[in-house]
Design brief:
With 315 residues, this protein is an alpha/beta fold. It has two domains: 195 residues, Spore Coat Polysaccharide Biosynthesis Protein SpsA, Chain A (Alpha-Beta Complex); 100 residues. Helix content is 43%, strand content 18%. Strands 1, 2, 3, 4, 5, 6, 8, 10 and 11 form a nine-stranded mixed beta sheet that branches. The protein has a two-stranded antiparallel ribbon with strand order 7-9. Helix 7 runs antiparallel to helix 8 and helix 8 packs parallel to helix 10. The longest helix is centred in the last third of the chain and has 25 residues.
């Protein structure tokens, strides 16, 4: 059973070797690592030169078009029965591939798996009840039983459907992709930790300070969520719909689109009025066109997260 690990990378010469070491050290050897270098301008290729001597490690360079495009390119190049996506700043736990094989074999009819993660300080980075959850589209959309960051695994056969691809126009878009997959495939969520997530990596989409480019990307991603899944969220998950509108309200203001921001704010309050954090951030955004306040809050939140992770590390 060949497992294809797809690793999109952009200017990650400083941390990509860590991800590759975590693959090479796995006791299970039926894998291939597909590195998609999305137009890096650092010394990525030179840094991983020795890794490429292993025939299972495959490197592809392409022009810079974003992580969605890189993942789609990896899907095209991978040849395994199962595809696992790993960010280039993260790493697998020592027995991750044994866990993958165990559950892939046991649940051979499942096409979509989610496994647990820890952060770099050892704190569990997801929440779910019990050991295993099987979720249909409606249950996955509600997301009342699972929270946090999961490692995504897919059976190769689902990609025969050409509509199941990551969006090229969004930097990220994993949630949109997972919802599209779950429309046609049940998700099996497994309470086993298979990867370690790093919070302090440079050039990280999820942990960097905000720029106008990132704000525009957040705006487009949340608009895409409303366009693609708004009707379903309205029927099944008012909380998520309201949060999405409140995020749109804030980032609209940060982009100077105050009329749109107010429209989204009203919709956010309609569907989820009990969200003081995002309501406060909406009002702050009127004063924060240069993102100074937003980035100060991100720095403060990040320090609290790191401190909390160190203090309340899981055993």
């Amino acid at each position: 059973m060949l497992i294809s690990v797809i690793i999109p990378s952009f200017n990650r010469a400083h941390c990509l070797p860590r991800a590759l070491d975590s693959i090479l050290s796995q006791p299970v050897k039926s894998w291939e690592a597909i590195i998609i270098d999305d137009g890096s301008t650092d010394n990525t290729r030179k840094k991983i030169k020795n890794y490429l001597k292993n025939p299972r490690v495959k490197y592809f360079f392409k022009s810079h078009k974003g992580v969605g495009s890189a993942r789609n390119y990896g899907i095209k190049k991978a040849s395994g029965r199962y595809f696992v996506f790993l960010d280039s700043d993260d790493q697998f736990t020592p027995n991750a591939f044994k866990i993958f094989q165990k559950f892939f074999k046991k649940y051979s009819r499942i096409n979509f798996f989610l496994f647990g993660t820890r952060n770099q300080y050892g704190k569990k980075w997801f929440q779910m009840p019990g050991r295993i959850l099987k979720l249909n589209y409606q249950q996955f959309l509600i997301r009342s039983r699972i929270r946090g960051v999961f490692t995504q695994c897919f059976k190769r056969s689902i990609f025969k459907d050409k509509s199941l691809r990551f969006r090229h126009d969004l930097n990220g878009g994993e949630s949109i992709f997972m919802l599209k997959v779950c429309r046609k495939n049940n998700a099996l969520v497994i309470n086993k930790i298979v990867s370690r997530i790093y919070l302090d990596t440079r050039h990280s989409l999820t942990h960097d300070l905000l720029t106008k480019k990132q704000v525009r990307n957040i705006y487009q991603a949340n608009k895409a969520t409303i366009c693609e899944f708004g009707k379903d969220l309205k029927q099944f998950n008012h909380r998520s719909l309201g949060i999405t509108y409140l995020v749109l309200a804030r980032v609209s203001n940060l982009l100077g689109k105050y009329a749109k921001g107010f429209k989204y704010f009203r919709k956010g309050l309609k569907y989820y009025p009990k969200d003081p954090k995002r309501i406060i951030l909406y009002f702050i955004s009127f004063l924060d066109f240069k993102l100074i306040l937003s980035n100060a809050l991100i720095k403060f939140s990040k320090k609290l997260t790191i401190l909390g992770s160190k203090i309340f590390k899981d055993s």
